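so my prof wants the structure for this chain in the tokens format not the other one, which i didnt know existed until like an hour ago. anyway here's the sequence
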Amino acid sequence: MTKQDAALLDLITLKGKIALVTGSTGGIGQATARMLAEAGAHVVISSRKQAECERVVAEFKASGLSAEARACHIGRSEDIAAMQQHLNEAHGGLDILVNNAVLSPWRSIDDTDVPLFDKAVEVNLKGNWYISAAAVRLMRPRGGGSIVNVSSIAGWHPERMLSLYSTLKTATIGMSRSFALEYGASGVRVNTVSPGVILTKLADAFEGQAAERMINKTPLGRFGAPEEIARTILFLCSPLSSYMTGADLVVDGGLSVSVI
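here's what i got, hopefully its the right format
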């Protein structure tokens, strides 16, 4: 934890909150889960593989953080139902959901076949939709909660070879706004974060001159770190953003205001 993060956590407490972060065994998801846990939340680490979830939980517990491992493939309705049942029985509900799990195929439009298209929609849109609906059912009895969907500036500015990813990230923003409208009266806030190029596996697609060009387009002159997105998500999960819903926060080092 940096001094900056420690100062931030002095302002925010999530003590007593139950948080579920999908796709939290690496990258933005793991950084977010750690930051929520450091703020006092009990965090459910979730991805497709139980062993990977348990690995991250062991790291968290070694740091004195509260976490548990629970595998969930959000593209499977039975997994979502099992997660909802577990959260209800083990914790009496849910306070925070961060939808970070994603499939990001690097393909041209011509090479995007139907099976790949269906698989990406199953995870990136259908999965996020139905796990969010399940989360609302868990949040309502507790007086509300916060859902944060991780989108991308690719949802606003499509990138070649990421057309399917970009399309579904645009849909994520629309989904967030619709959920915010429908569930605001229940105290459930739904917001979106749209990162730029962050140092995760997806950024590996930008190598050599491609990476240099992307950095040169970015006013801050560098790629972002997962922790920089995690801080924004922490803000949206906390009381500091209590009057925010239906918003999309762009965290991209200024890339989206440059000529793309």
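also thought this was worth mentioning. The radius of gyration is 17 Å.
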